[in-house]
Input
Amino acid sequence: MSATPPPQAEPDAGARKPGGPLRRGWTTGACATAATKAGLTALLTGDFPDPVTITLPKGETPAFVLTHERIGDGFAEAGIIKDAGDDPDVTHGAMVIARVERGKPESGIAFHAGDGVGTVTKPGLPIEPGQAAINPVPRRMMSAVIDEVCAEHGVAPDIAVTISVPGGAAIAEKTWNPRLGIVGGISILGTTGIVHPFSCAAWIHSIHRGIDVARAAGLDHVLGSTGSTSEAAAQALYDLPEIALLDMGDFAGGLLKYLRAHPVPKLTIAGGFAKITKLAQGALDLHSARSQVDMAFLADLAGHRLNQDMKARILSANTAAQVLEIMNDADIDIAADVARRALAAVNVTLRDAPVDAEIIIVNRKGAIIARTGFS
Output
């Protein structure tokens, strides 16, 4: 369950950092917790604390300004606008609303999905099917503030909390939720309460949850792609179910290391020539800011098939696409060489895991130009 984006267009699936210092933000889970505390306080006292302060799992104590307050017959609602800081989070600016009501005696704490919050429908996620898509840490954070506020006022913590995010269903279409079987809206996420700008953690978390869902469904083949073009090309071969499509993006390491411990029998990795060249070089993070194509590596792969003039042109080339064009003009199938070397790098990372992998390289027009096949 994640707020990371779906497959991106080739060639670069990574985000660019703006100039200057980066500002951190707050997760939907932190916003839901603060809104729950404010709503429950108002339910028990008639007054909303504004701003409302909560304690995050690592001890930070941020204060949140309320942007929605409502008290009705037996309920209170509080809403907070999510500020993701400088992270390109699709939920930035969304309002997170907690509606708090008294439950039946000894009913305990219950969580419900309101408008714009999804419901889990498939196994393999940390929340059981049929439950609101509110992750375990936000549930614990909200439970803690409910226990705290109820204890202060001498009442039993028999409380029902409904979390809503107006417009969340549309936001969810920009996330992995539809592939993970989360319907109706976004997930309420967060492990620390803090969004670190341009962190890789949320994307890698989504890759891991995608593998969990595929395994729980008994799938024997998953597809990790660097973007939408390569995904479509590989899908034309296999027509895999949607939950088999893992938006690997630049995070080959996040995919392979998790599969090493949680194997699926068959893995297809599909990507453009430049991205797969980086993988062949041994890079596990394929983003342009963190790994580069080594033209000398490509020249060495071609070896004796290059004359001195071609080698000089390759070493002075500006892009991998330019190298590919030079090689193609000389009838050198460098894409096949790169695919084989990338498969070897994948198998080194997978170690002895029972995963049979293949590599597919796709050009910018979506045509497959190299494919290793399975062992």
In short: The longest strand covers residues 95-102. Residues 1-19 have pLDDT under 50 and may be disordered. Residues 25-195 form a domain with the CbiD-like fold (CATH 3.30.2110.10).
